[in-house]
Amino acid sequence: MKCEMCHKAEAETVVHKTIAGEIRELFVCQECARMESRRDAPHPPPPHSGGADGVSPVPLMEMILDAAFEIVGKSISLKEPACPVCGILREEYRKRSRLGCPACYEAFAKELESAIFDLHRARQHTGKTPEKAKSAWQRQQLLNALDDAVKGQRYEEAITLRDQLGKLDGGESAKGGQEP
Amino acid sequence: MTSEVDASARRTRNVPAGDIAMSCRVRLARNLADERFPDWATECDRKRVFAKVRAALEAEKTGVTLEPVTSFDAQHLEMLREAHLISKDLLERAAGGGIAIAYLEKSPVCIMVNEEDHLRIQGFSDGLDMQTAWQRADKLDTLLERNLNYAWSPRLGYLTACPSNVGTGLRACAMVHLLGLRLLGEIEAVVRGLERMRLLVRGIGGEGSEAAGQIYQISNMDTLGVSEESTVQRVARISGEVVRQEYNARVRLIQESPLVLMDCLARSLSVLQNARLLSTVEALEFLSAMRLGASLGLFTRLKVLDVDKLILLMQPGHMQKGMKTSLMSEERDEVRAGFLSRKLANVKLKC
């Protein structure tokens, strides 16, 4: 289908535009999408329907990231941020649409947060956890809960949590003994 | 003609789902913590990642051997790509890349190293048995994780080079043949419907390709905020619905437009039996029609599996196999035309 803005090129993505006070969804070509993202701040996406038949097509990743980085970049700092681990600059990442290393997710967290939400309509992983990372994460969760229980003077709860930590550490020690 | 069309209509009620749903694949994207993603890595970085993955495979005694991409000749790589075991992206990033292919229970599991991510673990299965494809990939993933430190965060899940894969890193993909919907002019509406359900629809060449031969790949878009199981179930369920729509389209074609259908089949058979030059794209379009006709039982001595084999063997890399010298494009077109003509010489349209 043709772009609903220029009526010339083929529509490849979707933008949300306020027309007569109403947010409308328009199927547009890449060029019109870029012009829109530069002209306006991006509109908040429609509420996530949550179901399998949600009617919320996702804009191209490059367009979302461009918009997210442009807006956040203008608001937070004039100095070009870089990842402290791999050293790539925000501009370099935007050109290739690929991050430099896993630490970039932390380094560019502000910019990526809205971009990731626009892409996936979600903020929290709910899938598989690698076993090694799972133990470390469980341990941290227990430590945080224990700290909280102690501060709140809920000592019985704290004892239970301490015992759980002990079991977790004991299980890890046993596994550690078996590893080559 | 009427009796054959009637017979075909009766047979269509029993068309196996595999005639429409050709195969499925589940891919898991993984990266190593403390290593640059491949596109920003140096050659030394990529070699180190390759060595770590190879060591992990050996440590688990998987029986899977990782070989560098550079150890395969160009023609072999092309054949692997044509069989959808590796991607074009891997070939374009050859330096430091690796391939490991194993056969588990007669179906392949394939690992690509240093493609867009450090690891792409792929499980395959027939038809829409996506659960099996996922279990194959997942099993290998769990084994590898014992010896590798994956880049992972509690909030974002598996960290990937491109944020579009972050979370589960899982892409479940069904390959379906939708010529019936195409002939009835309904394919665009189906594709738009799938896209509105947040599914990606691509031709068999992968991202950005057109649907040559009306063979489409349907895959999930979302990888964050969803579990692997629900994703696999969802793609399988929706693809199953598309298969049902294609099946109904075929029934309607036979009942409402038998002449359109028979004309399409007759032309395809005629060209394939008599052409002197055939490009890959042309041949695929005609073989697509032959596949539909075989599924409906309208050709003698031709089954869907036969056509699937021809679709693979007529691709450029497979055509080149056994040739002493490298063929130019027009030479390949001539060889392809001759090959298909011989293979289909005894096939006839039943009415």
Give the low-confidence spans of chain B.
none
Give me the secondary-structure category of chain A: mainly alpha
Q: Using DSSP, what is the number of strands of chain A? A: 2
Radius of gyration of chain B: 22 Å
| Strand adjacency order, main sheet of chain A | 1-2
Overall pLDDT of chain B: 87
Oligomeric status of the shown chains? heterodimer
Major β-sheet profile of chain A: 2 strands, antiparallel
What is the fold's blueprint, element by element?
The complex is a heterodimer of chains A (180) and B (351).
Chain A: E1 13-19, E2 22-28, H1 30-39, H2 61-76, H3 90-96, H4 104-107, H5 109-120, H6 131-151, H7 155-178
Antiparallel strand pairs in A: 1-2
Helix pairs in contact in A: 1-2, 2-5, 6-7
Chain B: H1 2-12, E1 21-30, H2 43-59, E2 67-68, H3 74-82, H4 88-92, E3 98-104, E4 107-113, E5 119-126, H5 130-145, E6 152-153, E7 157-158, E8 170-177, H6 179-183, H7 187-196, E9 199-203, E10 215-220, H8 228-256, H9 258-274, H10 280-295, H11 304-313, H12 316-320, H13 329-343
Antiparallel strand pairs in B: 1-5, 1-8, 2-3, 3-4, 4-5, 6-7, 8-10, 9-10
Helix pairs in contact in B: 1-8, 8-9, 9-10, 10-11
Description:
The complex is a heterodimer of chains A (180) and B (351). In chain A, 52% of the residues lie in helices and 8% in strands. Chain A has helices at 30-39, 61-76, 90-96, 104-107, 109-120, 131-151, 155-178; strands spanning 13-19, 22-28. Chain A has a two-stranded antiparallel ribbon. Residues 41-59, 73-78 and 176-180 of chain A have low confidence and may be disordered. Chain B is α+β, with helices and mostly antiparallel strands. In chain B, the strands form two sheets. Chain B has an eight-stranded antiparallel β-sheet. In chain B, strands 6-7 form a two-stranded antiparallel ribbon. In chain B, β6 (152-153) and β7 form a beta hairpin. In chain B, α8 crosses α9 and α9 crosses α10 (280-295). Chain B is globular. At the A-B interface, α5 and α6 of A face α5, β6, β7 and α8 of B.
